[in-house]
Structures are given as structure tokens and as C-alpha cells.
Design goal:
ARM-like, cytoplasm, IMB1_TNPO1-like_TPR, repeat, mainly alpha
Length: about 850
Amino acid sequence: MQEDIGQVLTGFVMSKSNEEKEVNEEKIRALKEANPRDFLFAMIEQLNNETLATPARHLTGILFKNTAKGGDDGPLWFTLSDDDRAKLKEYILIPLADEYEEVRRSACSCVAAVACLELPKQMWPEIINNLCTHSGSEDLKIRQSSLITLGYICEEIDGEVLGNDNTNLVISALLESLEANENNPALMQITMQATYHSIDFAENIFDKGEGSLIIERVVKHGLNPDEEVRKKTMMCLSEIIRCYYSSVDKFMGPISDLTSKIIREDDDEEVATLAIEVWCTVCEGEIDIYRRKKGEGCRNYIKEASVDLIQLVLWCIEGSYVDEDDESDNWNRSTASGCCLSLMAQILGDDIIEPVINFAGKKISETEEWKDKYLGLLALGAILEGPTKEKLMEILSPAMNTIIELYKFESRKVRETVAWLFSKIAQNQPEIIGNETVFPSLYSHILDGLKDDTRVACNSVSIINELAKGLKPVEGQIGNILSNVYQELIEKCTECAYRDETENVHIPNQQNKINIAGFDALYSLFENAPGNVMPLLMESLQIFYDKLVATYDGKDSIDNRTMEFQSFLCLCLQTLLNRIDTHLDTVIADKIVEVIINCFKSRNDVFEEGFLLLSALCSKFEKHIDSHVPEIGPYIVHALSQGESSETIKNACGLISDLCTMVESHNITEGFENYVPLLLNNVMANRTLQRDAKLSAVTAIGDTFLITKEKFMPFLEETLKYFNSAAEQCIDVNLADYDLVEYIIKLQGALIESYTCIIQEVPEAGQLIHQTLQPYIPGILKFSIICVKNDFEPTLARVKEVAGLIGDLISTFRDSADFNIQEVREIIEFLSNQDDEESKQISQWLVSL
């Protein structure tokens, strides 16, 4: 293999055509699949082969890493013998001292990959100590490689796996390296990058109050002559504040001085922008504290720095370069400052108004320069979320006519920003413009804006979108300020939805932007329509049905743009069906099912919006939809078996649930054998799907069991295995990962519901289902207890759900587990102490069992 693989690798990196590259790629794949073990050894031999071209040696490292980590049943690395792994680890360390940096970096990625595989299994414990030791080597090549590898490991591995001792070693080595290499820009960049990735691990160090040295060393290098070092320093500061907000008190002064100097004086735009992001991170941390902890633990860094910080960001906004013809939305010092100002407004509330209004007022009223008006409007729009409605009304009302008139200003940039400002007002305080005083004069300008340049039109239609949502009638209110113009609003938004922007195809992201904005506004108009415009919604249902038919009628094939419009139109019909509160003839349901199936046929594929529309039909027409299940079924099967989109699969699962629970479909019980194996093997077992798709699959399986009952038995054992695997994800959850915790809470709900469906059927289903379930009962009980742990902040509703499941378990499987445990007694006591009658009844029921 050695001679052949060297030629193949060289042929791949030196390929002069795609065809030649594909041939060599196929040869590499064949060699790997023929004998993965030998392939790994061959890659490392070639990585150490000094006669091989450097690009080919670099490639071998990538192939080694990907092969070692790959494998259908876990990493291939662990299928090797202990002796093979030991030899490979010895070989991958050799090129860390290679002459060529490209080779060294490739070797670093290999060492890091193996370390991240083995360290979680308490294997290769010496690697961290060795790397830390050699990070101070006299040999600069070895020093560089050690630091790069540490950075790669820190980037990928979990801090808990690394442990406190190794974390201390890594942090100490990096801090020493920052001092030792301060005159070596290349090593400083590498060290600061590794420091950035290590900060998340330093919790134990900061908890013990020993994080000062880390902050000191990072701050010290904020003015390093090398711009890349300064960039990474700012990134480190943001990460430190994000992770250890409460530990930076005594350093906020130096951090403030450093960032202010960089923002005002640094010639590198990216460095200055990252310095502003440091303050954005502070803002986000304090906003999060107020939202989650009602301000408890907030150090009020922003309030303390507000006077100087507001002036600093306004200085950045004022000094920004603006090109009226520039259509890009680049992230720079100016846009970051606008973002920071917006975040500060959420913290400071009314206190931010005076300095910003003074700035904006001068810019808007005291000059005719388009740039000044643009910047004033931009600053004003940035602070609309945070201050009270009363204070904003007091400030904005006297200036409203002046601002409205800017809708006709000659500068397109100003018109665009005026429309954006009104959309922000509509989003945050809709009553300020959605009243009899302001709206009539504003409305004509909005209509003119819809016919203006694309960006002006997009922002104008956004005003309609936000007003429709913000002025949604409350109970008992049959109309609002929009009622008299509702038909015109629907017509004008439809025109935007179908507006042809092909002449703007040279402008990035502009061609479909107005179409998307138009449809978004239509969704909001339909969803939030007041009661006195309901006849318009009935008319719109027929109009948009006809538009959907027109996307395929008389056409042999359709293009991507037409497919997009099919999706948009399905969402329109879905929203209309959900909103119309009057009786609809079942003929409409039959027609819409037919049009959806024709859309599927026209594109030879399914799409998520089509399934959402079918679910809306289930909700609206319930049992009438049962007759259409034989037509719909093949498309559900297609989505579950061939669908690559997680959203489409999620909505196909949702449709199965709707057919089971709303329609109580007879036909789905006849054909459910087509769905369940796909739900288990194609969805639950698929590691690449997004989490929400699997949540929907769990619910769909439970709902299917509920209506098929004993017919489900052939799939029950496999279902319980998948459910058990999913339940194990709820153990040892990283509570700092808010997205993961949110998913786990949803997963708990789906599993509780599905387990309850299954358990409640046992008494009537016979001995076989009882025997199948029995081995899983202790695990289900353990899962139930975990769901009400304080870590997940369970709601009263969740505790009731868990209590119901435990009660069903006791009733049916009294001898299969020990239910007289402290955790169950605590649930009983908790419910008995609640004020509502239902909680007390559940508690008494559990006691009686």
C-alpha cells in the first residue's frame, strides 16, 4: 500500500482537473475501505515521509483524523488493538517537530483528535502534561506545535473531561507562554487563540477567586503591535465576561480604558469592532441576568459606564463612513456601535433617551445633509426597545410630522432608514403610530414606500407586518385602526409578494427579499385580523387557493422560484384556515388536499409547508380528512424514507399525530405499518437529524400506539429500546447549555406523554404487552424522577404529568419496581401542599395506590 498510496495522494493534491481529482479520491476511498487499520498506518507513515510533497503530507493528517474519528458504530480508533493504538500515537508525535509548518499543523490536528477520543475514557493521560511541558521548549517548532495542539484540544474537548488538574496545567502553560513569547507575533497569535478556547474550562479557577492572573495577562496584551494578537485579545475578553461576568469587577476599569482606546484609535477596523463587542457581551450578560434572575447578581457595569459609553458609541456612529450606494450590511465599528446602543437601551431604559435624542435631534433637524439625517435616524431607532412607552411618546410625538416628512427625502438611504425606524416603532411600541393622530398621515407615505426602491419597500411592508401583530385585537375588540384599510393592505402586500426584482439581481440577496417580506406581512395580516374583516379572509382563501393552483396548472415542470411560491402560498392558506372562525364547507378541504398533492407531484418531492397545510386541514375538518389518508399516506412515507430536511420530517411526524388525535383516522390504523418502522429506523436512529424532528417522532409514535393498540405489538419492543435510549439523554445534562436544557425539557414532555399512552393500555391489552414492558419499568421510573429534579425547574403541570405516569406505573406494575422511595414521597408531599384541587386529588390518588 505504501508505494501506491504516496502516488495517489500526490496525484490528488496535484490534480489539474476535477475528473482527475475524482479518480484519485475514489482510489483513496477504496484503500480506506479495504483495510481501515492499514490505511491509518499508511497515513502516518506518509505524514512522516519527508520525500513526499508537503501538500500531500498535510492531506494524510486530515485523512488520518477523519478515519480515526469515523465509523458507523462509534470511532474506528477503538476497534484497533492496544498495541496498534500505542504505535500510532508514537508515530503521530514525530512530525510535531517537522521542518514544514503545514506538516506540523496537520500532525497537531491528529494528536488533538486522538487525545479528544481517548481522554474521555481515561486513556493517554500523559498527553496534556507532555504538551504543556513542551510548550516552553527551546525548540521553537516543538513549542509552536505544542501550543497549537493544546488549542485544538481545548476547542473540541469538554472541560469536565479535562478535569481540574489538567485545566490548571493548560492555563498555567498558556499564561507562561503569553509572557515568554510576547515578542514573537506568530507564537502570540497561537497562544492567545488557545487561551480563548481554554477560558470555558477555567470555572474552577475563577470560582476559587484565582482568575485574576488570566485577566491581567490578557488585558496586558490588548495593545500588542500585532493586529491578530489584538483581535484574539478582544475575543478573550468577551469570552471571559461571558463565562465569568461576576469575577471581573476590579478589572472593568482597565478593560474600559483598553477598549475605549482601541475603539477610538486602532487603525484596524476589525480590532475596534471586536472591542465594541466586548461591551455588547457585557450588555447581553446583564440583560440575561434581568430576564432569568430579575436582576439578582447584576453588577451594573453598564449603568456605571453609561455616560462615557453612550458618548463613545455615538462618536463611532457619527464618525462612520457611509456610502449611499452601498447595499451591503457589513459588520464594522459603526454597526457594532448601533447594536451596542440597542443593547444598552434595554438595560438603561428611559435614562438613555436624553443623550441619544440630543444627538438624533441635531442630526435630523439642524442639517440638510443626508448622512446626518441617516445617522440620527439610525441612533433613534436603536433605542426603541427598553424605554417606556410613555417616555417615548413624550419625546417622539412632537417630532412625528418631521420624521414622517423624511419619507419623501431625496436620499434613498434616508427613506430606507425612516421606514426602518417606523417598523422598529411598530415592533416595540405600536400604539405610538397606530392611533388616529399619526396613522392617517403616515399611511399614505407607507403606500408610496411600497412602490419605492427595494430596501425602502421592504422596510415599508415591515411596518404593516409589525402593526398587524402589535395591534392584534384583544378579547371583545372587533376592530382596530387598520380595519378600514385592511383590503388595501392585503392587496398591496400581495403586490410586494409578487414583485419582480430581476433587474436588481446584481444586488446580493435583493431579488427575493421583497417577496419574502410581502408574504410575511400577509401571514401577520391573516393571523391577527380583527373580527370585522372576516369576510375578507374568506375571499382571500379562494384567491390564494387559485394562486397555488396556478403554480403547476398546465406546466410540465416548475423552477425553484415557483417552488418557493408554492411554500409561501401554502403558509398563507394554512394561516387563513387557522384564523377563519366560521364554518367552512368540506368541499374546500377536498380541493385543498387535491392541490397539495398536485404540488407534491409537480416537484416530485414533498415539502414542509405542504404538510403544515394538511395539519391545518386536520384541525379544521377533523374526521372528514380520514377519506384522504390513502392519498396522503404515500407522501408521508416518502418524507420519512427519503426526506433530507429535518423540518419536512418533523412536519410529516406532526401530520401523523394530527391524523391520529384530531381525525382519529380509520385509514391510518390500516396503514400504520408503513409509518412506524420509518419513524423508528429512519428518524429515531438517524444521528444527523435536528432534535425537533426526533421530538415529533416520539410524539407520533405515542399517538399511533394510542389508536392502533394491540396492532402495535410487533413494534413495541423496538420502540421501548429507542425511548429508553432517548430517556438516558436526560441524565447528566450540561445545565450551562441552555439550548440543550430546553430540548431535554421538551424531550421529557414527549416521552412522558408517549409512555403514558402505552402504560394506560396495558390493562386491556393482555399479558404479552405486560411482559414486554416489565423490564423497562425501573428505567421509566428513574426517568420520571429525573424530570422533576430542580435542575430542570419543572412547572406544576410537569409535576402533575410525572405523578400521573408514576401512578399508572404503580397501578399496573406494582411488583416490577420499588415505588416506595423518597422521591415519590416528595412528589406526593409537593402536590398535597398546592392550592389547586387537581394537585391535591392527584396526591391523594398516589397515596391510595
